[in-house]
């Protein structure tokens, strides 16, 4: 399977939107490519204990955005990606981030603290870039 969905009950983000975001992230990072097949609605429902309409809503939104296309009886397939020229830098940046995460854990931070630190820094950095 090309992508394996997961749900974060603590995120405050609706399940269908989490699925949409995970596909967008996979497309942006080059983990999904044109022609790749998304998991069937039945598989996602069984794995995540979701209502089928939730998965269908996510897939319809992705289809509306032109990212996937449903082929009745066959599946849902990626029709375009969101990668850009900076994809080559992802590997190096991912390794830098892994080192930073290891340092944060060595400093005694738990996952929730790491996420809070990252998101606070990310948001303040984004606001500084706008100003």
TrEMBL record:
Pfam families membership: GntR (PF00392)
CDD domains: WHTH_GntR
The keyword Transcription is annotated on this UniProt entry: yes
Source organism, top-level taxon: Bacteria
GO molecular function, one term: DNA-binding transcription factor activity
Cited InterPro entries: Tscrpt_reg_HTH_GntR, WH-like_DNA-bd_sf, WH_DNA-bd_sf
Residues of the HTH gntR-type domain: 13-81
Entries under PANTHER family matching the protein: GNTR-FAMILY TRANSCRIPTIONAL REGULATOR (PTHR38445:SF7), HTH-TYPE TRANSCRIPTIONAL REPRESSOR YTRA (PTHR38445)
Official protein name in the record: GntR family transcriptional regulator
